[in-house]
Task: structure prediction
Amino acid sequence: MADKKILIVFYSRTGTTRGIANRLAATLDCDIEQIIDETPRRGFRGYLRSGLDATLRRPAALRRLQKDPQDYDLVVVGTPVWNASLSTPVRSYLAGMRSRIKETAFFLTHGGRGSERVFKQMQAESLCHPVATLALTEGEIRRGEDREQLAAFVAQLRRFTRATARAPRGEVDTAERIGSGTFVSA
Ligand SMILES: Cc1cc2nc3c(=O)[nH]c(=O)nc-3n(C[C@H](O)[C@H](O)[C@H](O)COP(=O)(O)O)c2cc1C
Result:
């Protein structure tokens, strides 16, 4: 049976998360969608606003999306870390789409602080245990030290989609899936 369908969805304010999303999409040869947020987030004022929005968990006004996650077997969601929190646009996306997402994997880019907390927040918003996670720092990306982690993430995604293609829904994994247990609000 063919591998299942994957969608990559991401938000990026300054391009770092977009770069990883594009590389993943090219490697997996899958669909990709960028979350566009109507709030101005450029410059220093945009930086401050973004941090505050993330800390206060304010909802974002998202531009209409092209892809319906319900059409995909696995939705791979990417975000930057803002104030050790999930970025506002991705929080709104996950909250709005949770009933349309079957399975998720998460990736994030950050400066070095808050990744585990953000993964927990993504899990809480999506009500999904991710099949894989990937956290990359800007330094690792800049120095080209991200390749091994990226390849391992891709391998996990492929393993999962192949396993679920073989088995009926509901009969797969726990060993393949990470983060089983209760949903945590962080
Ligand atoms: C408002 C704001 C707050 C941030 N807070 C954190 C943080 O708490 N921890 C961290 O490691 N990086 C933090 N960063 C850095 C970003 O996570 C990092 O630059 C990321 O790679 C940016 O991704 P992007 O270019 O896709 O927007 C913050 C960035 C912004 C804009």
